[in-house]
Amino acid sequence: MHALINTGPFAPCPTPFNTAAYVLSAGAQTPDKIALQIVGLTRAERWSYATLIKAVRGIGTGFLRAGFHPGDVILLRLGNTVDFPLAYLGALAVGLVPVPTSSQLTEVEITAMTAPMNPAAIIAAKGVALPDHAAPVIDVATLREWRDLPDCAWHMGDPDRLGSMVFTSGTSGAPRAVMHAHRAVWARRMMWADWYGLTPDDRLLHAGAFNWTYTLGTGLMDPWAIGATALVPAEGIAPVQLPLLLKRFDATIFAAAPGVYRQMLKSARLELPRLRHGLSAGEKLPDATRTAWENATKTPIFEALGMSEVSTYVSTGPNHAKRDGASGYAQTGRCIAVLGPDNTPVERGEPGVLAVSADDPGLFLGYHNAPKETAARFANGWFLTGDTVSMDDDGAIRYLGRDDDMMNAGGYRVSPIEVECAFEGHPGISECAAVELPVRAGVNVIGLFYVDTRHPVTEADLAQYAQTKLARYKQPRLYIRVTTLPKGANNKLNRRALRTGWKGRDDDQA
Q1: Is 190 in contact with 362 (CB distance < 8 Å)?
Q2: 509 pLDDT exceeds 60?
Q3: Checking CA distances to 281, which of 112, 218, 306, 385 falls within 20 to 30 Å?
């Protein structure tokens, strides 16, 4: 049987359409309901749907009065405040193209990223690095004044028109601007049942900052689109403090990256009486972390695979229980396949590249100003995700790693995830990362970078441990102790940094 799943049709996006109008339409029916709470240890800032909608439409009017026109690109350089989603939706409301960016980017980084898109304006918070660009800068004080302006009219139009852009690192390591149509937010409805289990009565707390796209989508846009309540931690909240907020503010769903769950497990108490389940995305959730969380809280974690170009498309959820080693199933409305080197579906059980139908309603429009790079991601009517997976007979997807992260050991392709999972139970290792490393001309081996615990550990100990867990060709030949593993702003492991930072050794361990 071929590794191809078509889960059926998905309701087409209404036309004409506007992202902001859609996201806020459910809340407009319950104007007094709390749309957003920014939760801290001593207080919570509350926004009703009426207040939220008023602020968004006022900001839209501000953009128009400032002389901007539909299609203009607006660069967002904002911190972890509510100004971020308000500016984002306010721009979309009047047909502008907002571009969210991380506040942690340096001037050099944001200048290089900004130049090709030539923004018409930059919305900036104090202290956030700005690009070397001639675009006018609108400060937060002005943005906040706009909230009180009269309501703008929604800019309705073709659902396929450009709505927003987000940056992704890409396989090359160079940031690329991913262009999304307005329809992309409508396609996120496929996640509501098959990943979130989301209802209008939910109170979803996302652990991320406002200006992270995972928070923007899962933590804000989706709860608002169904009329639920979004909870976001206030600035300065540490992961170990999140259990208290989950309990105090009656969170029913919790979303975070895997590393946050691991840190939360250090909390002395995890009593979460209202929580139904957690959500995890961004990278593979270690089974050890999942098991520890479920034992401590008696609630499951539902995992999803996705990427900036199409959001999530494979997940576990209330309708699909977790299977050992599997990441999940195609969401209802998705068509996915596992492709071989000839870009046709392989047999089930065989590894290959996970692909999403080029007709997926949530798929991006392309990379900005990069037609060749866009074309390279498509083949035979499929979008190539770059994830290496296999598909079980029942359609379950097993994640094996990024295509560019897969390691080669004596002709065998080895998943770094598999090696890392083998060391999760070692008492001397708190976290680790497996990477293919060059040791001499033409010779690469598997290396394990690790952060140790208080338990003493030697390379001989680790090598002996590996013999009990992994076939010989999967066992690391190098063990490199580090004080920390390099991670991005969203706590995602940066294997590329480990590879490029490797200086080699003069011994002959290989």
Answers
A1: yes
A2: no
A3: 112
Q: For residue 14, which of 172, 160, 174, 223 has the smallest C-alpha distance?
A: 160
* Amino acid making up residue 420: E
pTM assigned to the model: 0.85
CA distances from 109 to 13, 104, 113, 280, 374 (A): 36, 10, 6, 28, 22
Cα 123 to the chain's mean position, in Å?
23
Alpha helix segments (H runs only) across 298-439? 371-375, 416-422
User: Binning pLDDT at 50, 70 and 90, where does residue 34 land?
Assistant: very high
Section 473-479 average pLDDT: 91
Per-residue tokens: 358: 């080029």
Q: How far apart are CA 368 and CA 348, in angstroms?
A: 35
* Least confident residue range of 127-131, 355-359, 439-443, 445-449: 439-443
- Partnered with residue 5 across adjacent β-strands are 336
**In this structure, what are the phi and psi dihedrals at residue 313, rounded to the nearest 5 degrees?**
-140, -20
Q: What are the structural domains of the chain?
A: 407-501 (3.30.300.30)
Residue with tokens 């959820």: 317
Taking only the tens place, the pLDDT of each residue in 187-227 is 999 999 999 999 999 999 999 988 888 999 999 999 999 99
Q: What is the DSSP string of 433-488?
A: EEEEEEEETTEEEEEEEEEE-SS---HHHHHHHHHHHS-GGGS-SEEEE-SS--B-
CB-based contact 51:38 (threshold 8 Å): no
Parallel, antiparallel or unpaired: strands 34-39 and 229-233: parallel
